[in-house]
Amino acid sequence: MLFRRLICSAAAAVLAVSCFVCSVSADENEEEKEIIKFTYDESMVSEDTSQPTISFDTSDWENYLHLTPDADLVGVQMKQDTKTYYQGASLKITASGSAPDKPFSYGESLRDADNNLVHPDYDENTPYVNPGIELRAEDFGLSCFSGCTISFYYRIGTDVKGKLMGDAVYVYPVDEEYAHLASTPVTLTYNVIDNDNVSQYRSIACPAAAESNATRFVFEVPVLSNLSSDAFYLDNITIRLPKGEDGKQLVIKNIDGYNANAKPQETIEGLEIKKEGNTVSIAEGDKAKEGGTSVVLIVVIVVIFLLVAGVVAFVVIRHKNKFY
Ligand SMILES: [Ca+2]
Q1: Do both 112 and 20 map to the same domain?
Q2: From ligand 1's centre to the CA of 85, what distance in Å?
Q3: What is the pLDDT of residues 116-161, one digit of tens each?
Q4: Residues whose Cβ atom is located within 5 A of ion ligand 1
Q5: Are 170 and 186 in contact (CB under 8 A)?
Q6: Ligand 1 centre distance from Cα of residue 257 (Å)
Q7: pTM of the full predicted structure?
Q8: How many domains are there within the chain?
């Protein structure tokens, strides 16, 4: 009898311990998956979407843009620029270094089309690096960026072709460990042909998914070889909050002294129209396209003319034959 009691007590103890272990491990799992609840500081938001959150028009932008921890790997630096801007003044980002000995965030650079390693010293297990600049949610009174969208104006440097991976700067949300939270980044690709973003500013947006624990937006500068000029420019960044249940759109209001009187640059959609001082190659490309269109038009007109002339000649000959 005593023996049976001992067995039962031991079994109960084992059960209790195992339940405790299960609950601890379940708690740990829950802790790992804990989603940061989105909250915002009511004193920092506005319904007025006409003013950007960061304008770069005064020196106060320095409180809101940061270098990423990997920025030094490729010598990323940033400073206000009053010569090349969308409106008032902008932020110029440069990178003076060469390619680091670790891969950038995007895996496609690891292997070529034949699945061979592009760089023999690293593979999929090598830690990625994110050199560039970043926005941090806490600077804007936000618990996280989940559900937010940033929009901004940008211009790509004239010398990035072949010198940045994919000829591009990549924009994407990350969590505190710099884990990617977007399957594909927003790609600012050097383009002087059909959507010129080198001699003029363009606007684009980058969202962070809801409940994604996004706390930063990274602008990655994946340098492959030394840049002789600027990497890219930023102006007028606006942070939009997730739309409320009432459909109201709130933004983080301007916090760095927006110069509303400065005239925005004209942004030309589609094919670029020349302005004084721009590169000649783009103009030649445009002319070639226009020339190509003209040639096709002339050929069509000539063919129609020949067809009509042929029909007229045929009718006239038939008509003459009737009388002779
Ligand atoms: Ca500005």
Answers
A1: no
A2: 6
A3: 877 777 777 778 899 999 999 999 999 999 999 999 999 999 999 9
A4: 55-57, 87-88, 235
A5: yes
A6: 10
A7: 0.72
A8: 2
